[in-house]
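A quick aside before the break. I want you to see a complete sequence-to-structure record at least once, exactly as it would be stored in a machine-readable document. Don't worry about memorizing anything.
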Amino acid sequence: MRVRSGRVVAAVFGVAAVFGAAACGASEAGQAPPTSLAVPTTTASAPTTTLAPTTTTTVPPTTTTTTATSAPPSTTAVEYARNEAVYFSSPTGGFECGIISLPTRTEAGCQGATTPIPARPENCMVNWGNGIRVTGNGPGEFLCSGGPVYTSGVSAADSVLPVGDKVSSFGFTCKSEAKGVTCVKEDTGHGFRIATDSNDTF
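That is the input. The structure line, written in tokens, reads:
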């Protein structure tokens, strides 16, 4: 009885060994090789930049043409002005003239030798008849003065006002003429004309 039991145990171990070998063989021989899992590859595309073509516009230079024109005679010539007063010489050089503002009056006048000369008034105690002026009080009148009145004092003689030119200031206008000078107060029309051999007040 004991011997039989040993055979049974041996038989069981033998069967187990056969199954174990079969199982190992099956797993090694019949099992397919492991499959490699492919990892998906993602390729990032570089961003595409499109540059717009540069356009250069060339603007042609602008040419300005200035046409020289003949300007009319100036009535406010700078060379005659001293502040608001003006001083000038007649074309003949015989008269010094000006349009000036004094403490007691504003006037235009010319000094120089002229003829005829009216009689000296009793109230003139200095030089008489060496020129004519016009103020705001009426017609032109002869000068009674102790010395030069219509001079800027800058030079021996002020600039010559060419024939036909005018200067204006303080509401008076003087015009240079071939033989002398005419000055007028603009709002009244009063004035004078003076020349070496003639004169007139109005």
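Two observations worth writing down. Confidence is low (pLDDT under 50) at residues 1-44, 62-74. DSSP finds one helix and eleven strands in the chain. We'll return to this after the break.
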